[in-house]
Amino acid sequence: MKTLFTTHLKGDRTIWMVALILGVVSLLAVYSACSWMVWRHDGGTLRVLFKHGMMLAAGGFIMYVASKVKYTMFSRLAQLALPVTIGLLALTLLIGSNVNGASRWLVIPGLGITFQTSDLARVVILVYLARILGRNREEAWTLREVFLSIGLPIAAVCGLILPANFSTAALLGMTCLIVLFIGQVPMKHIGIMAGLGVLAFVVLLLLAKTWPELLPRVATWEKRIENWG
Fold this sequence. Notes:
mainly alpha, three-stranded antiparallel beta sheet, 3 strands
């Protein structure tokens, strides 16, 4: 095992082992829980297990390739991928697959495969923040710098995820604020950004009362809150 990590695998050993253990556990969980799919699709449970195994193998290969790439490359890619990701999120709202009033998926033309653009956005925005905060700074952050280089990208990503997936947008927003705290951005700037985010959300809810198509999932959110209460 030591030779394997030293010669072939790069990166943190703990992350590799956790990923391996979770992959094995997921195989057992999928095989146990997919029996109901036999009634809807032909091929039996082994077909579902094989498909999941292929997805795990593909994910492991991507992890292996990523471990061979110098980490600074991801910093540069995040800067380029951010505007592309924002465009994909906007495209998802316009022409994405609509399920229960939520447009969360884009269909890859010719392949018939769908992917959730918010998953890509979560990775890109966090790597982008790491790039911005990881630079050596001799002067303290100003509110203008925080708003332009950090606040606007976070607002664009979370704002485009919000109409279709409030929980993901809220969790991603809080995660970004935690990253800013770890990156030693002044607490007053973080507090102002959080306050502006809450204020913008309240205004959006008020506008949705007049134009329901602005936030089509508001009714679903209200029902969930009522059922929980």
